[in-house]
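We were asked to recover a plausible sequence for a given structure. The inputs and outputs are reproduced exactly as logged, with field labels preserved.

PROBLEM: sequence recovery
POSITIONS: 284
GIVEN STRUCTURE:
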């Protein structure tokens, strides 16, 4: 059985300004993994384009990671801003030149407690978003997150994000959001979705492909409705949809997340209770 473990590391990573945002997503009919999935080695710290994505700083979050005793109680993993950020390194002009039209996709990263990306998956791509997917994966391959914090300690998390690209009056409009909530994406609100973490205080161990019931190589998607309070505690969990149905993905998602504790959602820099519908992607 495939068992995804988030790699443990030491020390916290020097942080820059945080950002989060959202916009409308037009999901494709079925999920797929990026053919150009990035390598598991960290590289230079990324940064971001202020004009392209609004910024936020969770309450109590320092501009650089201090000693553990000074870390905030909660902090989500986020992509930092700056000249070398993911959003600034994406070649928007090249995307237009190569024919990329309006497109969007979801992505998920397993982020270590030092901010390195251990794995990346892309899924629910809109039609004709292949160029956008490849460019995002290329830039994430060299990205380092501001690491997540729970109970004043760095932890390993799953980051759920959305990237959108539009051509407006012949000019590119790129957005990267730290959630996958369609209502939040439409409003482009300052919202960072909750992030399940591995570490003290959580029994979450990643996603487990249901090898006992799925005998062929299928990819699966389960939409899980969750209610999570402002401390990251899971209050309610239920499956909304399963694709393909009745082969074991719904059961796998329920078992994976029922034991999870989360970095709480953040709205306008403060932890909040939220109701979300999270698309959970499985591959062999």
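RECOVERED SEQUENCE:
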């Amino acid at each position: 059985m495939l068992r995804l473990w988030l790699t443990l590391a030491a020390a916290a990573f020097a942080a820059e300004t945080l950002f989060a945002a959202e916009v409308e997503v037009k999901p494709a009919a079925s999920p797929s993994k990026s053919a150009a999935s990035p390598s598991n080695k960290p590289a230079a710290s990324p940064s971001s384009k202020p004009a392209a994505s609004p910024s936020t700083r969770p309450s109590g979050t320092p501009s650089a990671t201090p000693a553990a005793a000074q870390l905030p109680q909660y902090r989500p993993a986020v992509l930092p801003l700056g000249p070398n950020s993911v959003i600034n390194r994406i070649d928007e002009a090249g995307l237009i030149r190569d024919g990329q039209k309006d497109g969007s996709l979801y992505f998920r990263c397993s982020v270590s407690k030092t901010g390195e990306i251990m794995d990346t998956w892309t899924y629910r791509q809109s039609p004709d978003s292949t160029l956008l997917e490849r460019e995002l994966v290329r830039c994430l391959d060299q990205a380092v997150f501001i690491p997540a914090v729970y109970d004043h300690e760095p932890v390993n998390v799953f980051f759920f994000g959305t990237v959108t690209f539009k051509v407006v009056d012949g000019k590119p409009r790129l957005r990267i959001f730290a959630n996958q909530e369609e209502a939040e994406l439409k409003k482009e609100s300052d919202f960072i979705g909750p992030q399940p973490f591995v570490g003290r205080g959580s029994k979450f161990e990643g996603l487990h492909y249901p090898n006992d019931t799925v005998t062929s190589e299928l990819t699966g998607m389960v939409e899980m409705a969750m209610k999570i309070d402002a401390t990251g505690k899971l209050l309610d969990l239920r499956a909304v949809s399963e694709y393909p149905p009745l082969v074991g993905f719904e059961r796998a998602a329920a078992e994976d997340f029922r034991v999870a504790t989360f970095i709480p959602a953040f709205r306008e820099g403060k932890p909040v209770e939220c109701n979300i519908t999270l698309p959970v992607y499985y591959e062999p």
